[in-house]
## 1
Amino acid sequence: MNVRLIPVIEIFRPDDSIPSPGKGPSWEYPDEWSEYNRLLNIKAGFSDKLAPYQKGSRFYKIDEIKDEDLLVIIQLEIEKQKGDDEPLVLALTGGYILQVNGDNVYFPQCCGDLANIGAWYEIINGAEHPFFAGHPSPKISVTGEMVHFDFVNTNYSGEHFTPPPSEKQFQLKLSDLKHALDVVTKELKIFGSRLRWINEIHGLNIQDIDRILISSEI
């Protein structure tokens, strides 16, 4: 079984001057929402090279974001987060797409961010408290060497997963999830190096920028 955790950043800067498609959801009207998001991104200062994970999506793979657009992301985060003492205190919004055998079975949900990598590690480390990576979150349990995902019996009544999961319940091997975490951890280290480099060459002077934007550690 091929299991991947794909780190993505959510980018969405609404602007009243750009009308929304007026119909949805985005995964049912991907062309309309893709063009809308593209226009919003250009208005916000991003390049036309910024391409979403899939058409109509607001998620962008960290390894496909060009340096010029990554700089814009940082600048917008400073604008959004800046407090009295620190310019940045929170991880980048987004999270991790769970892909199994090429099928995207779970996308980041509301309030998800890159710091949610910790929640995925808690699964393999045997944490007893419920899995949380934004809301709603699936109910996850480990039995022996299998990890069970339940998108029906959760603690988030009234909340719906967006987009809807392709399967309501499924399981995968714990060893496969561990391998996926090993791979994504290396990707995050590379991304952290890029953040530090951009911080240096543009004189942003943000201490521990990689730790903050990836794991909310200050």
## 2
Amino acid sequence: MAAIFSLLLLLLLPLPSLSASSPSPYLSGATLVQNYQNMLKAFKIFIYTPPTPFNFPDAPASLFYNSLLRSPFLTHTPAEAHLFFVPFSPDTSTRSLARLIRQLRNNHPYWNRTLGADHFFLSPAGIDYSSDRNVLELKKNSLQISVFPVTSGYFIPHKDITLPPFNPSPLPLSDTPGQNSTKTSFLGYLRWDGKTEPNLVNEFKGDAYFLVDGNSEPLNYVRSLKESKFCLFLYHGDVAWMVEAMAWGCVPVVIVDRPIQDFPFMDILRWSDMSLLVAVRHGGAERLKQLLNGVSEEQYVEMREACMASSKHLVWNEEEPQPLDAFHMVMYQLWLRRHAIRYARREFV
């Protein structure tokens, strides 16, 4: 009964309206509205019983997993399920994972119908290719959910999904005063973890256009976000604060030397319209300064508004998922991927 009440509550809450005067952060806002409603009404997931109880130490993975276990999307009737969830500990070895998939193949009829294409699993770091046939089918056919960013080679763009990072906000994201103002003191702000790219970071520290600090006090941290035009992120560095930066109107700049295909919700959000990817290995801080100063004020304002509008979809709610938040956007991406090719049933040894 509680699950039915939660679903009805979600259906009654309004979806966001898109202002004609503001840039849309969505690839297709109209499609999102219609498909999201359909997902809430119909989506069903069957969860296999894990071999042993476990928890995810990674915060986004833990929040997603626990929210899924309490969600109204679950069904105990496999025949009505759109997708099947394969739970296993992030510490599971390749041999144990192969044994788990072999057991699903032998003990249940569902894996063999699609060779795992209507199954999904949660692996914070992602899994690599394997010579074992069972793990290879899981890797190539099933939907992988990982935490952004993912090691290159562990993520398949056309099917896999990433979870937005989680960072407890020093102040509520709803208390974001001054969002209409674009007056800033710094061109770029970097909250450095003290590890990644120290030579490059030292260049930023020596340039008055950039602000670099570590884990500053909450009020100083928020002030830094508000006073900076762009927020700098080192790919595979500390990206946990990206959602807060976007909510406060600080446009993310990801420093990376290759295209990124694992941004969260790439099927939904226009990341190209609200973020910049730059390679500055040659030219350093001076090169980055030239690139950021080349962004027109009109383009910057549009990117900033798109960031603030989309940030609500990247927020994890610790107590209980809310409509259109990070958990529901992950579920929405699963819903979009629920169609699977039905292979002829075969017998396996």
